[in-house]
Amino acid sequence: MKTIHNMFEHLSWANQSILEALQNVEVGEQQLSLFSHILNAEQVWLTRLKGKDSSQLPIWSDGDITVCTKLIKQNEENFKTYLAEIAKTDLDNLITYANSSGKEFMTSIRDILTHVALHGQYHRGQINLRLRADGNDPVNIDYITFVR
C-alpha cells in the first residue's frame, strides 16, 4: 500500500503542477482537453472501483480550467478516502466493470490503481509536449523530482 499511496501523492502533485502551468500560459484546446481527460478518467476509475456504474461519466470533454481545478481537489479527496477504506483489503481482489463501450472486464484493485497513476503521467507528457511546441517551458513532473 505504501507504494500505491506514494503513486497517488505523486499523481496529485503532478496534476497540481500541470494546473499551475496551464493557469500561467495561453492554453491551447488540446492541452485542456488532455488535462480534463486525465481528471475525468480518474473519476471514472474511482466509480468503477466502488462498484458503481460509470457509463454516464464523460471520458473526454471540453477543457475548462475552472472545472479542472475543482476536479483535481475532488479526485484527490476521493482517492485519499478510498485508499484509507481499502487499507486492509486484498489488493488482488477483482473488480467487475464495463468499459466505455459497454464491454465487461474483471481487473484487480492493484492493477486498476496502478493504471490510474500511470495513465495520467502518459497524458501529462503529451501536455508538456504541446506546451514546448507553443514556446512554453514543460513542467518537470518526474517522480524523482517529486520525492526529492
TrEMBL record:
Q: Which UniProt keywords apply?
A: Metal-binding
Look up the signal peptide feature and give its range.
none
Q: Which residues participate in a divalent metal cation binding? A: 37, 119, 123
Name of a matching Pfam family: DinB
PANTHER family listed in its UniProt record? DAMAGE-INDUCIBLE PROTEIN DINB, SLR1116 PROTEIN
> Which family does the record assign?
Belongs to the DinB family.
- Protein name, UniProt field: Damage-inducible protein DinB
What is the species of this protein?
A: Paenibacillus crassostreae
